[in-house]
Structures are given as structure tokens and as C-alpha cells.
Design brief:
11 helices; four-stranded parallel β-sheet; Rossmann fold; alpha/beta
């Protein structure tokens, strides 16, 4: 599988990318024309910050799907176990501050605005603030690294909705940095985490054979199989699992090669946090099912790597630190969960580098990418990451539909 073409081919037709800067409006795969952005828009999922917020937040997340509150309560207990507070907003406050510090250290005068898709502060509030402060050209950084409907296209749809709700369409443009699953700044914290976990296991269990008695599980959020198949542009031919599975698989291979110094440590890609009806196929295997099978193969210790997450979201704190670690203990396995990037200096620096790619119009050959799949597209391609149940909705930072 080869990466995107390194050129900046323009799709015929004017202004085919809604709400884009002039440099991106005609739809090149990579924008190699410098753009003078006014501010960075840090865009995230959002989360409740108290018990009274939990159900209203979950209504926002599931809006349009007609899910009754009784069913939402089945998920709400994850949040209620932590006082009704999701960790994500606090993490984004830290990330915003870290980005501001990194920008200041480099002498880059770009303010950082923060808006969420599902809870306060909302994207529409961030856009209103941008307009009030005189900012008209924004570059968005979404806190999601991979290609799928929920991790890319839905952000782009919500940008369009927020511009419509605020009446700022035509006044503010929003570009978006490329999906950064294989940017060195995102990948390095996982390399460090796997290396450190294997060293920890060696110290705790002298004589353990990491080539037969340890398994590394790279875990990410499961998504419906139909959505996975439509992730990434169809022209790339990723097959079953689409770009979503292919990107995770490629990054995991890089992490293992760098973290093990040539040792052949067993690993696999697993999934977690599925929420659909049993009749709907989702990506598998589930992490808990995978853990249950390890003792029969002689595995004594497991390294759990939250490869699909940029920080310790609720899915990490509950589904991994609670359920997956409990499953490991039930099967007599020593388990260690490695860190997410969070505000790791390499990750924060990498996000600034991604912004500067667009500010400076960096040539594709000079962009950081550790797999053959990237560097990914600056402007999402036609039909990319369709939600087959909902169909196409207006979306920014990509070619229609």
C-alpha cells in the first residue's frame, strides 16, 4: 500500500471545498501554499463535569438516534463512578496550555481557541469568540488521530453546523490539519510506553521470555464494520476495516519495531468500547475476549497500549483501567497499561509542527510520517469516511460530498 501522491493536484472546479481558505478551496491533496491563519481551533469531543451533566451530555452524543434515557443510564454509570466528571475537559485545558507554551517558546503568535462537539465550551462558542476577536482564518486541530466517521468526518460536519448556527459561514474559514496517526510526535509516546512496559515486566519477572510469555495488545475504539469499510478514500482500496484498521495496524508495526530492539514480541490489534446492538457487526476482537485466550498460549503478562486515544478518555479509564485490567487479573495475567500521549512534549511539539505545515506550505517530502500510508491528506477526499446509516451531510475541510 503506497501513500498519497506527493503532488498538489487540484480537482477541477472552483471553491469545491466549503468554508476553506483560498489555498485549500480547490481541493489539493496537500496544500503547499503558505496560509496566514489568525488562530488555532482546538476541537474535541467534550464531556460532563458533574452528575447533573451526564444524561444531557449523552443526549448530545446520541442526538438524532432516539435513544431513551433508560438506555443512556447504562453508559452513564461509567461517568457516575467518577463523580459524573469526564477527564477529557481537564485534559484539553492542559493541552491548550501546553500548545500555548510551545507556540510561545517558538515565537509563533497564534492564539489557541477551544471548542467541543458535545459539551461546553461548544464549537459555536469558540467561533463566536474568534469572530469577536477579529479572527477570520482558523486552522483546526481535532483531538483524534485516525480516519473514520466519528474521528474525522463528524468533526468536519460539526464545523459546518457551528458556522451555520452562528451565522458565520462566509465570514470565517476553517481548514484542518491532516490526520496525524503516523506523525512522529504522536507515535513516539507509544514507543516509549511499550519499551518501558517491557522493561518493567523483565524487572518484575526475571527470566521471563518476552518472545513467548508476553503479548502486546494495541487497542482502539471499535466502530461499526460498515463505517470502517468506508473510512478513508475508496480509491485507496484498503479492504475490510478500511483506512481505520490499516492505519492502526501500520502504526502498531512501527511501534513494535522501535520498542523491541529486534526482539520478536507477540502482538495484536484489538478493539474496545463497542456500543451498538448485537446484530450490528463491529470491529473485533474485543480486548477482553483476546485477553481470555492468552493463558492457553502460555502468556503470563500483557501490555495494553491505548493506540487509538490521544489522552486518558473515559474509555481508557473505565474500559481499560477497570474492565481490561480486571479481566487480566481474572485470568492470572500480569497487566500494565501504557500512557496515552496526553501532553507529552513530543506530542505537543508534533501538533505545532502540523499547524506549521499549513502555515508554511511545507512540501510533502519534508513532512513527518513514519508509515507508508502517510503523510495523510490535508483536504479529505470525496466520499471519505461516509456514515452509511446517516448519509452525507455538509462538511468542511474536504471535497464534497
Amino acid at each position: 500500500m503506497t501513500g498519497p501522491e506527493s503532488g498538489s493536484a487540484v480537482v477541477p472546479g472552483a471553491a469545491v471545498v466549503p468554508g476553506a481558505s483560498p489555498a485549500a478551496a480547490s481541493g489539493p491533496e496537500h496544500v503547499i501554499e503558505p496560509v496566514a491563519y489568525d488562530a488555532i481551533l482546538l476541537a474535541s469531543f467534550g464531556g460532563p463535569e458533574g452528575q447533573d451533566d451526564v444524561i444531557p451530555f449523552l443526549r448530545n452524543v446520541t442526538r438524532g438516534r432516539g435513544i431513551p434515557d433508560e438506555r443512556l443510564e447504562e453508559v452513564a454509570h461509567h461517568y457516575r463512578a467518577f463523580g459524573g466528571v469526564s477527564p477529557i475537559n481537564a485534559q484539553n485545558r492542559l493541552l491548550k496550555s501546553a500548545l500555548e507554551a510551545e507556540l510561545a517558546a517558538r515565537g509563533i503568535e497564534l492564539p489557541v481557541l477551544w471548542g467541543n462537539r458535545n459539551w461546553d465550551p461548544y464549537l459555536r462558542e469558540a467561533l463566536t469568540e474568534a469572530h469577536d476577536r477579529g479572527y477570520r482564518s482558523l486552522i483546526a486541530v481535532a483531538t483524534s488521530a485516525y480516519s473514520s466517521y466519528s474521528s474525522c468526518r463528524q468533526y468536519r460536519e460539526d464545523f459546518a453546523i457551528a458556522l451555520d448556527e452562528t451565522g458565520l459561514a462566509g465570514e470565517i474559514t476553517i481548514d484542518k490539519v491532516r490526520q496525524f496517526f503516523d506523525h512522529p510526535g504522536f507515535v513516539q509516546p507509544f514507543i516509549d510506553g511499550v519499551h518501558g512496559a517491557l522493561e518493567d515486566i523483565r524487572m518484575r519477572f526475571p527470566g521471563i521470555d518476552v518472545t513467548t510469555e508476553v503479548e502486546v495488545l494495541f487497542t482502539t475504539h471499535s466502530i461499526p464494520s460498515a463505517d470502517a469499510a468506508h473510512s478513508g478514500p475508496a480509491s485507496r482500496g484498503f479492504g475490510e476495516g478500511g483506512a481505520y484498521r490499516a492505519q492502526h495496524q501500520a502504526v502498531a508495526e512501527v511501534v513494535m519495531a522501535a520498542a523491541t530492539a529486534g526482539e520478536s514480541v507477540p502482538w495484536q490489534l484489538v478493539f474496545q468500547s463497542r456500543s451498538g446492538p448485537p446484530t450490528q457487526p463491529w470491529l473485533e476482537p474485543d480486548i477482553n475476549d483476546a485477553i481470555a485466550e492468552l493463558p492457553a498460549r502460555g502468556v503470563k503478562a500483557v501490555v495494553i497500549v491505548p493506540l487509538g486515544f490521544v489522552s486518558d478518555h473515559m474509555e481508557v479509564m473505565w474500559d481499560l483501567d477497570n474492565e481490561a485490567l480486571e479481566t487480566s487479573a481474572e485470568h492470572g495475567l500480569y497487566a500494565v497499561r501504557t500512557p496515552t500521549p496526553g501532553v507529552d512534549p513530543a506530542y505537543v511539539s508534533g501538533l505545532v509542527d502540523l499547524v506549521l505545515e499549513r502555515v508554511n506550505g511545507t512540501p510533502v517530502a519534508e513532512r513527518g510520517s513514519v508509515t507508508a500510508l502517510g503523510p495523510w491528506y490535508d483536504v479529505c477526499r470525496p466520499g471519505c469516511c461516509e456514515n452509511v446509516r446517516l448519509g452525507f451531510k455538509p462538511a468542511l475541510a474536504g471535497l464534497a460530498p
